[in-house]
Amino acid sequence: MIGANSKEVAKCALSIAMTLSRDEEKLLKEKFREEGEIRCAAVDFGGEANTCMKTIVERAVVAAKREMLIRECHAEEGAIAGATREAMSQIIPKAIGLIIGGKVGIARKGDHLSVAVFFSIGLIHLDEMAVGFRHLCYRRISLTWRKYGQYGEQLLLLLMSRNKY
User: Fold this and answer.
1) Higher confidence at residue 50 or residue 23?
2) What DSSP element (H or E) covers 34?
3) Helix (H) or strand (E) holding 115
4) CA separation (Å) from 119 to 23, 65, 95?
């Protein structure tokens, strides 16, 4: 997995989301980090489909921060929240009124960020399995431009126009 691209990061997110135990999850995280320097996070969830979207998104953001996939800033938290919501929205219409349970897998290397949700939709023992996925390319922008005071914003715009940020 050296030189990971979007496909490799996506595969990691899906693999983490489909783990069956915390031990398996931990082993995969270590493997991905050692082989390709891909950082991963996962979070379990379950409940009624109509009311759990907010909880799932919040847990995904907390897990991404805990595993140091993102910094504690509005833009990066929003990237995870938006990607998680988009992955969930691919499947949630099929689950309205039913119970869902599963795992969110998040993977990141450099600019590549992937969120995968793998869960069961069902009632009692009549379950259907579903996968939702969202990949995005998110570039971290250094906030050191603020040290330049009143000229900082102009400097940032100049650097962005030259793709030097």
Assistant:
1) 23
2) helix 22-36
3) strand 112-123
4) 19, 22, 10
| Residue 92 · residue 53 · CB < 8 Å | yes
Token digits of residue 121: 């939709």
What's the CA gap between 122 and 153, in Å, rounded? Answer: 51
- Which of the listed CATH numbers 1.10.530.10, 3.40.1510.10, 3.20.20.140, 3.10.290.10 matches domain 6-161? 3.40.1510.10
Dihedral of alpha carbons 74, 38, 41, 99, sign: positive
Kindly report, residue by residue over 27-70, the tens digit of the pLDDT.
Answer: 999 999 998 889 999 999 989 988 888 999 999 999 999 998 98
CA dihedral (146, 61, 134, 13) positive or negative: positive
**Which long-range CB contacts under 8 A does 122-131 form with residues at least 24 apart?**
122/98, 123/98, 123/99, 128/94, 130/91, 130/94, 130/95, 131/14, 131/17, 131/91
Count of residues for the chain? 165
Distance of alpha carbon 58 from alpha carbon 77, whole angstroms:
10
Q: 147 pLDDT exceeds 50? A: yes
Q: Is the pTM of this model over 0.70?
A: yes
